[in-house]
Amino acid sequence: xxxxxxxxxxxxxxxxxxxxxxxxxxxxxxxxxxxxxxxxxxxxxxxxxxxxxxxxxxxxxxxxxxxxxxxxxxxxxxxxxxxxxxxxxxxxxxxxxxx
Length: 99
Ligand SMILES: [Zn+2]
Prior knowledge:
The chain is 29% helix and 10% strand. The chain is an alpha+beta fold and 99 residues long. It has one domain (12-98).
């Protein structure tokens, strides 16, 4: 098996698992639970998002457990900014929208 190069830390899987345990396998944004179904029948899969998009930055306050839809929505804002301002865009997430 070829080991894929990743910018996630070695213990990421364990870290993410612990975090999901901590929030009771619930999306911290919309409140859906892991494996629960959305209104359209799709299953929710929880993941852990980096609030500053830096995968090396794994301090608790930089991490948030989100379902795939909230995660997508969260990442979206960065993609929009990148498209708007180009590569020089200095990532500063609008954290307030999550409070
Ligand atoms: Zn969600």
